[in-house]
Design goal:
2 domains, P-loop_NTPase, 3-stranded antiparallel beta sheet, ATP-binding, ATP binding, alpha/beta, single chain, Rossmann fold, about 35% helix, globular
Length: about 240
Amino acid sequence: MIEISGLTKRYGAKLAVDEVTFSVHPGRVTGFLGPNGAGKSTTLRMLLGLDHPTSGTALINGKRYRDLRFPLRTVGALLDGAGPVPERRAVDHLTWMAQSNRISRRRVREVLDLVGLADAAKKQVRKYSLGMTQRLGIAAALLGNPEILVLDEPVNGLDPDGIRWVRGFLRQYAASGRAVLVSSHLMAEMADTADDAVVIARGRIVAHGTLKEITDGHESLESAFFALTGGQAGVAW
């Protein structure tokens, strides 16, 4: 599971993430919701050891990401804006990742097939469409068959069929007893995918609970979201 406690990040005088605390449990899809620039990506980067918190902790199964021996086997991640070397073939990109965590080559073939890229495995990534690149990112997250998935805007660039596939896959993944954290600003999609929700605005958690608890008294998750965030656009970080 994921445990984030008092997580804070300052950039000089600017406070990007302010005392963020929440947990993500096995068997549940947790939506991490907020306007663009609200602090979602910064929080995920600290969880995955890419940024150092000013204070607080972000633990995966009780450990910091950097203390996991083979992290890809514990947590698979897709971060918005992160991607492979454009000149590298997809199969080579995943093989390199697999070797770094002692994952078999067979698993590379499995995940490429799972995300629908088996026929494009030997293409250079620079020749991929946005949707194909996103599928490759999901394949990389699944490479270690991890207990936990952390996905930042996973349906970005996907067509309706791809979006439906991601939705169904994430629910099945959580139903198998694993934990899924999905960052998104797409309320309609999260309403069909998430069991729980964490809402962040201006770097602070404004709501945390089951989807039913979050939407109680509102017409939809979208209306609850705007009521909780005040419709604010956030500050880009």
